[in-house]
From TrEMBL:
<protein>
    <submittedName>
        <fullName>Uncharacterized protein</fullName>
    </submittedName>
</protein>
Amino acid sequence: MAFHIRLIKGIVGGGFIGPKVESSIDIQTTSAGATIEKTTYSGQNSTTFTKDINKGSEYDALMENISSFEKLPSFSHPIPSDVFGKNTSVVITKDGKVTWAYGVQSGCGYNELDAEISASADTKSSYSSLVDNIQSFTDA
C-alpha cells in the first residue's frame, strides 16, 4: 500500500490576503520505508531537507502517527476557519485515493452553516500533537 502525506504550514490568511505558506512536508512511502521532504520558505528563498527512513521502529512510529490522523473528524470540504488552530493543513492518500484531509478555504465565500464548525479541546490537542510528531521526523 502506497501512502503520500502532505502537511502545509501557513494556511490562514487575513481578510482578502491569502495565506503565506511557511513550510511543507511531503512523505512518500516506498517498499524500503519512507522518504520525507521538508521545504521551508522565506521570502523568495526556500531550503529543502530530505530524510529516508528504513522499515523498522522509526518507520512504524511514523506510520502509527499517520494512521492516527484518520481517527480525527474530517470535513467534506475546506472550511472557512482553522478549527484545529494549528495553521497547518494535512492530506493523506493511500493508493492514490484521499483517505483524510483537513484544510481551510481562503477567501470570504462560505455558507452560514460552515461558521458553526468547531472542534473540542481534546480534538485540537490531538491534532496539534500529531502535527508536531510528524514535524519532529524532519529534525536534523
